[in-house]
Amino acid sequence: MALICSLDYETQSALDLTKIGAYRYAQSAKIMCAAYAIYEENTFEPAMVKVWRAWKGEPMPADLLAALSDERVRKFAWNAQFERLITLHAAGLAVPQEQWFCTAARARASAYPGKLDLCAKALAIPQKKDLAGGKLMKKLSAEGTGTEEEYERVLEYCMQDVVVEATIGMVVRDLTAEEWKDYHVCERMNDRGIPIDADLARAAQRYAEVEAAEIAKELNAATGGAITSAKQFARVKKWVAVKAPEIALQFTDEETGKFSLDRSARTVIFESDLQISEEVREVLELIDDAGRASTAKYAAIENRTDVDGRLRGAYLFNGAGQTGRFSAMGFQPHNLVRDKLDNAGDVIEAVLDGASAEEVTRLSGENMLTTLARMLRPTIVAENGNVLVWNDWSAVEARALPWLSGSVAAEPLLDLFRKNEDVYKHAASGIYGVRADAVDKAQRQMGKIAVLALGYQGGKNAFRKMARAYGLKISDDEAEEIKVAWRLANPWAKTFWHDLEAAAILAVRHPGDVAEAGRIKYLMHGDMLYALLPCGRLIAYPEVELVEIEGKYGPQPRLTALKASMHPKKGETAWPRVALYGGLLAENCTQAFCASLLRTAVRHLDDAGWPVVMHTHDEVLVEVGEDEIEEAKAALQEAMLTNPWPDLPLAAEPEYGYSYDK
């Protein structure tokens, strides 16, 4: 059996970890104390936990030093990147990255929360994270000094964390060898860092007030002066409660009476079937825009970029939980605006020179909100002598979804992809009832949005949300008409949604038996429902329950599962659940399969020695020497287009530049 060392540090630094990230923080931190346990796999007992009182000047305990130095010992920690970096910088011990393993990544892979206290609560583990001790730890960490009693109290907190982490490690499944390899590839990319133009990130923040003023002006106009700033939270809630009382009713906590319109609540509103007026929708969208202000991204970029101009630690492995997609910390590389400015160089030069807001917007031809958003990609700049080469799959989810359905009815659509025809024009053709070669630019855009928004059983609100992301506003009626037309033109999708839900229900009813829908297989094991992807990776649905609900045509079966991204309300013990309907299952398996395609491509590039510095859900970016451009393009093509399924039509086109301004 493998030998494990579970480790947790508490540290002291004047810097804010949440603001600057683990990489910069670790360089300034000192170890306050540590708790650890060394044991054979699956034999952990709380009594095994030992301590290191570093605040007293004690040297690292000999058995901990020996475990960290032994390549045969697997080093586990919750968010292991932090412990790895503290071991390197504060303890002065370089433990090879491949010897570190993250318990939080394991929890997320099983669709449990990525925060230690929430994961313990979701799993109903009797040992709980010590929240009071956590508050004291933060106080001592920031102040750098405390009483002996306070330090001992923090040490108890640290010990309890190890108990909780190690216990969770015995409950959730271990990752496969391939999954751990992908984790270590991700950490190597995090270590490598994203090359950043820190001067541009710093200069762009000077226009924060202008950006906020633009949103405030629109809010003022939309509400007749009732709201003049996105930060007027009380006014916003009061205005919405009057204009849309049904929203206030749905999003008010029964116990506390608190009405919440935070980002998660707004997302539910945008994606639900709630009938809200255009006036209310516009205001909520403006509040959303303010929360995603580009100047906040520039601040995160500057805060997390090291003195060598590299932003490290941007990616969180298995961050999206069920699908296994990567998420991001601080700077969000997954949602950068793609449309670049026509004269980006001139605008960037003006910003760097400190030009007035009027001059910057005159040059760009856009308002400040749009201008700054379109400058984010060019903030990523190769080091001198290097160039960035990137490659992105064309409509990868739109290709994967019909292929995963395994439906003969989806073959005509897949053939369009295989022939490299304009699928968005064909989608518009089905929606508007015109020949594909007669589709105009506006119709094609609607076809593209339909392909991206409606494949997962999305309704008119999902379509409107996607349209908004492309800068388009459409009415409820038009969105509903397009939804109906797209479904009629793509009957395979509705069949796949139904088959996925039916297969999942069948698997739950007959534990141990495999139920199939298209290329997806379901299996119930214990209280966990698994979906097996064609690539061999699993999607987990914890604590699945099958209940009967009263439907339109009588009692109907409904599956629900624990939802990691939601939290119990105050005073509640039951964890929030989500209904596993066909559209959600289709979205999960498609996004998870595409995430596996990305992982495989990045792994192959890493194995071949190509330095991946960044990726999104459908794109991979490497930084190479100027003389390696063509070789890197070929390597990206090979890694991203080679797969075991000849009938899966993938396409990608590599590009390059000194800055990431596609």
Folded structure, characterized:
The strands form six sheets. Strands 3-2-1-4-5 form a five-stranded mixed β-sheet, with helices on both faces. Strands 18-19-10-20 form a four-stranded antiparallel β-sheet. By secondary structure, it is an alpha+beta fold. 48% of the residues lie in helices and 16% in strands. It has 27 helices and 20 strands. It starts with a strand and ends in a 5-residue tail after the last strand. The longest helix has 26 residues. Helix 6 packs across helix 7, helix 21 crosses helix 22 and helix 26 crosses helix 27. The radius of gyration is 26 Å and the shape is globular.
Please specify the SSE layout and strand pairing.
Layout: E1 3-12, H1 17-26, E2 30-40, E3 50-52, H2 62-69, E4 73-77, H3 80-89, E5 100-102, H4 103-109, H5 116-122, H6 131-143, H7 148-171, H8 177-192, E6 194-195, H9 198-204, H10 208-222, H11 233-243, H12 245-250, H13 263-271, H14 278-291, H15 294-304, E7 310-311, E8 315-316, E9 327-328, H16 344-352, H17 357-364, H18 368-374, E10 386-393, H19 396-405, H20 411-418, H21 423-432, H22 441-453, H23 460-469, H24 476-489, H25 491-509, E11 514-517, E12 520-525, E13 528-532, E14 538-541, E15 545-551, E16 554-562, E17 577-579, H26 582-607, E18 612-615, E19 619-625, H27 629-641, E20 652-657
Parallel strand pairs: 1-4, 4-5
Antiparallel strand pairs: 1-2, 2-3, 6-7, 8-9, 10-19, 10-20, 11-12, 12-13, 13-14, 15-16, 16-17, 18-19
Helix pairs in contact: 4-7, 5-7, 6-7, 9-15, 10-14, 16-17, 19-26, 21-22, 21-24, 22-23, 23-24, 25-26, 26-27
